[in-house]
Amino acid sequence: MSLASPTRTVRVAAGQGFWGDELEAPVRQVEGGPIDYLILDYLAEVTMSILRKQKSKDASAGYARDFVALMERIFPACIERQIRVVSNAGGVNSAGCAQALVEAGKRAGVGGRARIGLVTGDDLMDRLDELLVGGHELRHLESGRPLAEVRAAVQSANVYLGAEPIVRALALGADVVLTGRAVDAALTYGPLVHEFGWRFDDCDRLAAGVVAGHLNECGAQSTGGNCMKEWWTIPNLAAVGFPIVEASADGTFVVTKHPGTGGRVDRASVTEQLIYEIGDPSAYMGPDVIADFTTVELEEVGPDRVRVHGARGRRPPERLKVSVSYAAGWKSAGTLTFAWPDAAAKARAAARVLRERLDRLGLRFAETHVELVGWDSTHGPLAGEPPADLPEVMLRYAVRADERAPVERFTREIAPLVLTGPPSVTGYATGRPRVDEIVAYWPALIERSAVEPHVSVEMRRV
């Protein structure tokens, strides 16, 4: 049953575009004006790998700890203003995050007044061997290799859930809905499905919700951040306003931001986010619908207001995406800066000297990467040859190996270049490069029927 009247507008505000985004942004969203929902998106593929590494060292970790501290700060205002929060901050330890959130709520003084809806079912690690034996090969989407080839090294496996469990949690009265690996856009369109009573076979409205979620999920990229068009004219990015979706029951919505905040919402800023990371624009696949972005129309309807309409959708795919991380060796990168004259020539000579020394030591690496930061690190070969009068350039020399030992020895060979290589070196005072374990990404697909029966919603009272 729809909770909103056909004429009501539901305001869903974005507060985080990734784990590490501006900490004050969600506070501005809560305090800057009326909103109905605050969505906080913390997860990306690399984030899942980082969280899994953290949990492997500490069983109580594995979620976005920033989220708990933030909620302790804004919990009272959210409860008093009836702002409901939806977030995927649970990462690979949603239960641990939920418990920490309960304790934060008590410290914030909302004990007895808040309910947390915990969505589980995305974590496949405990079922992974069962799934592989059952014929779910989880082949790599690009190489086609079966996951069995790296099974011993797998550290996490999470399926992208849709909005249905979020809607269920909201229907049960959750003030905060906490998920693990839900698809980013579902954080926004889940509340819209709940508020407007949209059916999950209403593909056009769901597609509109996906577009709204896509425009919300990367935070200030919809409101002038990271915007190419006349970026120097965008005002006050120091206090940039994050996007707010004002949605109607028919699926149309307006992208805007709080008055008085920095940034800009116009056709250009919204368009740049609309086409960001979508692959085939006619078939943006999600767990609930396949959205066609080619039918979407944008219209500026006022200062910092862009109306979005025209989205079309069709039935979702039979398989769901799975994000797998696995241990893939060790890496390290060392840097040295060379000054004019002949900065680039010196850096290249230093790289050659280093390579010859590594070869003489018998060190073998699965991959070596050399770049001149300040010249070709962004565009690679397209940068061409550097000019002789380049003021300075940073040599970055990186290696990867299956074992730690050769990478560890590599880190000892950078500093000697200061006195045994080309002249005019600087930038070496930070010490020996760090050795990092590599957690690699393995994208795969799994049949929907293997996941849905295992999705559950647990309610916890603060």
Description:
This protein has 462 residues and is of the alpha+beta class. The chain has 2 domains: 271 residues, no CATH class; 119 residues, 2-Layer Sandwich (Alpha-Beta Plaits). The protein has 12 helices and 19 strands. Helix 1 packs parallel to helix 3, helix 3 crosses helix 4 and helix 6 crosses helix 7. The two termini are 27 Å apart. The model has no long low-confidence stretch (mean pLDDT 95).
How is the secondary structure organized here?
Blueprint: E1 10-16, H1 25-31, E2 37-40, H2 45-57, H3 65-80, E3 84-87, H4 94-108, E4 115-120, H5 128-133, E5 154-159, H6 164-171, E6 176-178, H7 186-196, H8 203-217, E7 244-247, E8 253-256, H9 267-274, E9 284-285, E10 290-292, E11 297-302, E12 305-309, E13 312-314, E14 319-339, H10 343-360, E15 367-373, E16 392-401, H11 404-410, H12 417-420, E17 425-426, E18 436-447, E19 456-461
Parallel strand pairs: 1-2, 2-3, 3-6, 4-6
Antiparallel strand pairs: 1-7, 4-19, 5-14, 7-8, 8-12, 9-10, 10-13, 11-12, 14-16, 14-17, 14-18, 15-16
